[in-house]
Write the C-alpha cells for this entry.
Amino acid sequence: MTSARPVRAAALAVAGAAALFGTSGTARALLAPESWPPGVAAVRLLIGAVGLLGFAWYCGLFPHVRALATHPLLWLSGVAVAGYQVAFFLGVEWTGVAVGTLVSLGLAPLMAGLLGWSIGEGAPGWPWAGVTAIAVLGLVLLTLAGGATVDLRGVAAALGAGACYSVYTVFGTSLVRSGNDSTAVMAAAFTIGAVVISPMLLGAGDWLATPGGVALALWLGLGATSVAYVLFGRGLRWLQPGHVATLNLIEPVVATVLGVLLLGESLEPVAWLGCALILVSLASLGLLERRPSGGSAAV
C-alpha cells in the first residue's frame, strides 16, 4: 500500500530547494558580478556548512553529525558536493548559463537514476523516463532560445558537475535510507565539502568587502544552501535519486524567470514553451511518484 502524503511533501520540499538554488545566478549578477566563481563557491559552502551545522546542533543532531564523519559514503558525498560547486560555476563561466545549466542539470537525472539503480535503490521506471525526457526537451528549448554558445571546457566542467550532483544525491539517499537523519547527513557532507574547497578562498578577491558581496555571501550560504539543503534532504527518504534530480530541473525555470524580472532579460516564445514543458513534467512526476509507507525503494 502506498502513502501519497509523505511522497508529495518530499516532492514539494525538493522543488522548494530547487527554487532556492535557482536564485544563485541572479543574486551574483545583481550583488557581485565581478566575483571569481570558484571563490563564490567556496564562500557559499563555508557559510552553508556553518548554517547546516547550527541547525543540526539546534535539533540535537550534533553527535550524529560527528558519528557520520567516519562513514566512507559520507566522504564521497562531501567531495562530490565540493566538486559540483566548482565545476558548475566554471561551466557557467566558460560556456554561459544556458549551456552550463543544460549539460549539468539536463544529464543529472539520467546519471542519478542509473547510479541509484546500480546500487539497489530501485529502477526509476518508465513514467520517470517519460517525464524526464519531456523536462529535458523543455530545457533544450529554453537553452536554444537564448542563443547559447558552446565552449568545450565549459561542457566538460558542466558534465563533471552533473556527475558530482548524481554522486551526492545517490549516496545521500543511501545514507538517509539506512536510518540516518537527513539534516545530519547534509550537515556532515557540506562540512567536508567546505573543507575540501577551502583553498579556493585564497583567490576569492575583494568582493566580500562590499555590502553587495556580504549580502551575496549570506544569501548564497544561508538561503540557497543551508535552508535549501535542509529541504533537499527531506526528499531523500521518500524519492528515488533520479526523481530528485528531475525535480531539480525547476532550478533553471526559476533562474530564467528571475532573469526576466530582475535583470531585464527577454525570452522568445519558444523559451516560455520550454519553461512550460519543464513545469508540466515536474507536476506529472509529483502525481506519478508512489512509495511504500515504510520508505523502501520501489522497483
